[in-house]
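Bug #77: duplicate submission created two jobs. Keeping one. Sequence:
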Amino acid sequence: MVAPPLAEVALDWCHAKSVTAASTSGNSDKARRTDLARWGRAIKTSRGEIIDEELLHSLEHDLDGLTTRDLSSESLLRALDLLKRSYSPSTLQRQLSSVRGFCRWLATKGLIDTNPFDDEVLQVRGRTEQAVRAFTPDDVTAMIEAAGEPSKRARSAWPARDEALIDLLAATGTRNGECVALRIGDIGGADRPVLHIQRGTKSGRVREVPLAKHTVDRLDKYLAERGERGLAATGRESLFIRNDGRDFTTDALYHLVKRLAQAASAHLPDDALVHGLRHHFGLQLAMRGVPPATLQQLMGHQDPRTTSIYTRHASFDLINALDDAGWLS
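Kept job's structure:
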C-alpha cells in the first residue's frame, strides 16, 4: 500500500476538525495547522534537511515530501527533542495534543497501521510539567513605565495607548486575538466598568471582566488623546489603533509587547510574550484565592482542567514563599 502524502491527509484532518469545532473564530484551526507544520519542519530538520527558518510555517510547505510512514515513534521522538529547545512547555503541550489527535485520526481511518503514541517511550517523553510562563507584577510595572518613556527609535510608539494596552492585557487576561477585536463600546457597565469580551474568543464564549480603576484611568487618557488627534473614537471603532488610525493586528500587538518586554528587561520565550500577560492575570487571581469556578469564567476556559494549571502553580508559589520566610522550618 502506497503511503499517502502527509500534507494531503493533514489538510483533510484540519478540515474535519474545523467542521465539528464549537468555535467559529478560526483560531483553533490556524493553531492546528501551525502545530502540524512545526512537527513537519522538526522531522525534516532531525533528518539533516536544510530548512529556511525565515519562511512562515505552512502545511503545504513544511509537510511536502513527507508521508504517513514518517510518523514513526522514532522520528517523532527526534522531532520532539528539537521542539523542546524552541518552545515553552505550554506551547509544546498544545503541539503534542495536535499531533496526538492527528495520529489517532489516521489510525482510525486506517491510514497508519499503528498509532505512534501507543509507544510507551513517546508517552513518557511527551509528558512535560505545564509551567505557567507569566510576567511578574514587577515585570508589568516596568513594561508600563517603558511604554510611558519610549525610545526615540520606537517610531510606532504612542505612550498613552501603549500604557493602557499593557495594563488592560495584564488586568483582564485578554488573549491576543480578543484584544485586537475589542471595540470602544465593549467598555461598559452600569454600576462599575467592565470589559465585554465577545469577539475573537477561543471557545466562542462571551465573558465580562471587571476593570480596575487604574486600567480605566489609562484607557480614558488614551481615548482623550485619540480624540485630540482627530481619530475616530465612537463605540463601534476598534479600541486599539495604530498611530495612523489603522486597526491593530495580532502581529502588531506581538511586536509592541516584545519591544516593551525588552525595554523592561522582562524575559519570556517569544511564543509566550502576549500570553505571558494573560498568565499574569490568571496566576495573580489564583494567588489571591479567587475560587476556581470564578477564575474559569474570567479566563474564558471551557475546561476546568485548564484553569487548574493556575491554582496548582499558585499553590507552589505560596509554599515556596512560606519556605523562604522560614515558616515551614
